[in-house]
Amino acid sequence: MNSFSEYTNCRLCPRNCGVNRMSGETGYCGETAVLRTALIDPHFGEEPSFAGTHGSGTIFLTGCSCLCIFCQNYQISRQHMGAPHSLDTLFKKIQDLIAKGVHNLNFVTPDHFWPHLRKLCHRLKECGESLPIIFNTSGYQSAKMITAHSQCADIFLSDFKFAHPELAEMCMGDRRYPEIAIAGLTQMVAEKGFLQPWDPSGQTTAREGVLVRHLVMPGHIENSLDTLRILRREFGRLLPLSVMSQYQPMPATRGIDGFNRSLTPSEYNHVRKLVTELEFEHVYIQELNDNTCFLPDFTQEKPFNGNS
Questions:
Q1: Which fold has domain 31-307?
Q2: Which helix (H) or strand (E) is 167 found in, with range?
Q3: pTM over 0.85
Q4: pLDDT band at 84 (very low <50, low <70, confident <90, very high)
Q5: What does the DSSP 8-state code read for residue 103?
Q6: What is the C-alpha to C-alpha distance for residues 192 and 155, in angstroms, rounded to an integer?
Q7: What is the pLDDT of residues 9-38, one digit of tens each?
Q8: In DSSP terms, which residues pair with 210 in a beta bridge?
Q9: Residue 108: Cβ-neighbour burial (10 angstroms; 0-12, 13-18, 19+)
């Protein structure tokens, strides 16, 4: 780890903690300079462009710099479940994952372990590995870091969570999120373009580009409507989107009005209607139902029932 100097005065995310993670200090992400993961496995809960027929090769990294109160991966993002790995160990586990026939390598919340992943991705490419590499992010990254990430990432699978600064402040403690996310997405698109090929059947999985996810939250429909308007204005109707209905109350949302219930059909239909009115052409619309098979429980050997 001696070559990972960025950990000594950590500025890897917009929090700019400046802590010395090499000495064992934890940043806002809650992690030191010891690389940790919670799951390395084929995953079928991603959009068909990534899961395809054999699954997306997901590497769930422990910790997160965004720390939303409604995070469905809270056991690893907020409670920091995970096991440490050397680069050699992780490289071997990823080789085993590739052997299972996955369509890509999908690093979930990679930002705070970027120095490790940069070295890992370079090693994979030196060995001739050609699977697309996905950086699956919260949308809370600086444009400068995205330029660096694009050296390794072929695909950016990015959230755009909040159009309203007040809601961002409430949910993750930084009212700058909307401006940071738009600047970051602009850089992602400049580096990689829109997701392609676009095949929502999953028969031909994506090789490069950007797809933006947005989770619709109960009681905050105007946030979703404004998010769609901003994305349409900034990027046009061809921006690939995934509009998600899978919100469920999490431990940190108990007792918070609007966050302590599921989404209603009328709320979600209101958002879907605007997607149509804005004429987005490349959109995944998640159906609203009670199926929670892809809500994880990382205390289990197989956290996602839907992968079984």
A1: TIM Barrel (3.20.20)
A2: helix 165-172
A3: yes
A4: very high
A5: S
A6: 7
A7: 999 999 999 999 999 999 999 999 999 999
A8: 156, 194
A9: buried
